[in-house]
Amino acid sequence: MPIATVNPANGETLKAYEPMGEEELERRLQLAEATFRTYRTTTFAERARLLQQAADLLDEDQPEIGRVMTLEMGKPLKQARAEAAKCAKAMRWYAERAEALLADEEPAASDVTDSGASRVRVRYRPLGPVLAVMPWNFPLWQVVRFAAPALMAGNVGLLKHASNVPQTALYLEDLFHRAGFKEGCFQTLLIGAGAVDGVLRDERVKAATLTGSEPAGRAVAATAGEMIKKTVLELGGSDPYVVLPSADLDRAAEVAVTARVQNNGQSCIAAKRFIVHGDVYDAFAGKFVAGMEALRIGDPMAEDTDVGPLATEQGRADLEELVDDARRSGAEVLCGGQRPDGPGWYYPPTVLAGIHRDMRIHREEAFGPVATLYRAGDLDEALLIANDSPFGLSSNVWTRDADEVERCARDLEAGSVFVNGMTASHPAFPFGGEKRSGYGRELSGHGIREFCNITTVWQGA
Fold first, then answer.
1. pLDDT tens digits along 396-452
2. pTM
3. H helical segments located in 179-248
4. 18, 95, 240, 278: least buried by Cβ within 10 Å?
């Protein structure tokens, strides 16, 4: 894929970039290593001051960077602006809390004495340059939720962003530089996917984080494993949305629509499989389909647009293949299911029913505004359907029954369980998945410690 901004609303190439050559890439790796040697010794107060300045600048830039994101990947402009605001919030959260999250820990006195020491401390030290391989769907947020904790921990960042959001990628480097971070603290590498392996193999790069597809995760994990380097992977998701008889159906159906089509349906944590108890299936389905049909599809720059185009032409083709396969295998199309005429990579909000295990869409992630409906006889069957997936990123359950809440919290195979609400990431809570959705955690104290050397400091008498 060329490194270029291509407007998904009309297919027009707006700006193209040449990939960095070997000489420039080497210069940046040298700079990252040299900058880390001094940046690692800065105080938390100094790092926090710089990150707060970045947050302030991002707030000022929100209208323009929102427009850039919409031009590059097609999300509705109002959602792009909200993404920028969320990034500034996360920066401030880490600026205010990182020092406490990474404070030295002292084991119990009895254990210190038992070890023969006079004092023992557990200290969190930065690793060094960390490579971040990031996707286009949340082109600002995916990066900031790595960069903010990494920088506050004393690491430096190297960003390999998706090739279709180069302007957002370059903006991020410029943002941190304007905030006062030294040039080598955060660098954007304009390189193709084929160059990632070489960067990860470089001894100066100490760890990697990737958000993206399962194949990309496998490739990064394989190389990192060979090189014995730490990785965090956040991969695909096909999140279940379980609706049980005691649920507030009006609210569950309303939230279900947003949960499926947020970011034009291109979100790993979007609810995708709607598993509804038979007692309320028909009522929920009617409300849900009506909500999906009422969505406004159009120019992502328009304030009243709910669903814009998919980010890439290939992405739309992949989504169509899943829908067509399900239709051929007997799925019922309750709404949508046909691409509209005209320019741009639009696809309508779609609901499919009658899904069974032989359909590809049951096993694969539908990365676009396509929902699948399942009917479950009871909670046991609902959980079986929910867990019958190679993914385990997040999950949603709607019930007023306390016992059902605890059962789902125990048995749903996912990194998060959201009860009577839509999955969302927040800087205070750990985020990540299990199974083929990846490993490790982002955000919260867990996320900032992922790229730290947990060091035991033992002192004798």
1. 999 999 999 999 999 999 999 999 999 999 999 999 999 999 999 999 999 999 999
2. 0.97
3. 196-201, 214-227
4. 18
Half-sphere exposure of 61 (CA within 13 A, CB side): 22
Q: What is the DSSP string of 267-318?
A: -TTSEEEEEEETTTHHHHHHHHHHHHHT--BS-TTSTT-SB---S-HHHHHH
**Looking at the domain 239-426, which fold is it?**
Aldehyde Dehydrogenase; Chain A, domain 2 (3.40.309)
Tokens of 331: 């799925």
DSSP type of residue 421: S
How far apart are the C-alpha atoms of 160 and 415, rounded to whole Å?
26
CA quadruple 100, 105, 109, 111: dihedral sign? positive
Q: Active-site positions?
A: 234, 268
Helix 77-101 × helix 44-73 angle, to 10°: 160
Domain boundaries, the chain: 3-235+437-459, 239-426
Beta strands in 134-270 (DSSP E): 156-160, 186-188, 207-211, 230-234, 239-243
